[in-house]
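Entry 14. Two folds queued back to back today. First construct below, sequence then structure tokens.
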Amino acid sequence: MGNACCAGGIAQLFRGQAQHSEGRRQGSVLPTSGALVQLSGHEPSSAACLLESYDISVELLGSGSFGVIRRATCRWTGSARALKTVDKGQLPDFALEDLAKELRIQGDCLHPNIVRIYGSFEDEEQFHIALEACEGGDVRDFMFAQKVLCESAVGFVMWQVLTAVQYLHEVKHVAHRDLKLENLLLAFGHVPLEDNLVKITDFGMATTFEPGVRNLSMICGTAEYLAPEVPLGRYDEKCDLWSCGAILFELLSGRLPFDAGSQEETMLMARVCPVPLDRVSASKEAKAVLRSLCQKDPRSRASAEQALQSAWLGQYRPDAGGPAAEESGGRHVEDRPVPSEAVASKGPCGEAACGPAAEAGQAAVLQRLAVAGSGATDYADADSASPAVSSDSGWEALSCSGRSGSFSSPRESVREPA
């Protein structure tokens, strides 16, 4: 598990002295722009843009080996954000490359059921990533707090998850490769599951793929959710649908289909043992979807589109009512222009599509990350470029959900070189 940063270590993350005439902004733990490094090639620097765009709270949402998460507020809209701050000095070169790839993939995804990245910034010692804040924690915690989930609540969750997976696979040609309950966040706190908005997070294992080709080879993911073909080192995006099946199994029954004493035993059971559908008490329609997702042969496994067309999931399409319906509108979301928070409020920098200067700053951060790593610029080909690393030991240990404390997952992700 990743180590939690101590308070003293966190205080040392920012060393500059504020030189701006306004001094430190109230409620901010960062110095103003005079103490930050201006990136070459454009003005303003992405670090200065961060300070113009956000009020950053002293409130600590989480910590990991390589950085912390703080609550931030967009100055132009008042919207809450989760600001991940990653210490450059603590990151090995391969982790910098992984972070660049993760930012590139997740930042390109615009879907109501995927945690959005609003910007990436840099100062002398840290990278800062502004993400959508999710106030309801993760679905696993919600499930254990409720103890029992009704089938309709499960249906609403799965409809949203599979809609996002369909978008990733069909629009973006991205395989997530680490779908699990801990990586499903709830947008709203104290809102019933049927009315909430589920968002996929943690794209640390994600990669792009070529449709119709089984050319993924890295053994990665979380053993209890890992498709049987992944440990064999030749698979495609259908691995995500098996993970969706494991999620559905867990939501309906309260336990995982395969969970042995070790990761190796769990992965072996998934390959050689039948899926124990008799453990699940659910309607025959729900079981039919579960069975279609838990096919061991990926060629027989349902796609996200096929699962969404089932009679069971069709009834949970959010056509009206509730926060989830208001944001997604029951539509399949393609890429579309996203309103700029800065433009809407005439802010100087803002988030996401906030103008050429900010876009150049974000591009510079990605370029620096790539150069600091292996120098790879083709992220689609970086599938197996990194050495083995446990996902909860660094960047991936930092979650953007609104929980306090260390954010290590109880079910650790695995990652091995191809």
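Second construct, same run, same settings:
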Amino acid sequence: MPEPPADVTLDEVKERARLAGLPIPESRLGLVRGFLSNALRPIRALDSRTIRTVEPAVVFDPEGGPEAGS
């Protein structure tokens, strides 16, 4: 099994905040890093190979289907 990725870095927090358009003060980056690390821990620990996939994948139409009102 591959090694889990390293903990979230401050550079990763800065980049995620920039991409999301969130202005995070420099003094709060450590706090946000902790929140992000805790939030990602269960996802990073998950072995996706053990999850049975269901086919076909769902496709969403942003304009709505025939049951959407006109």
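Quick look at the second one. The mean pLDDT is 83. Residues 10-48 form one domain.
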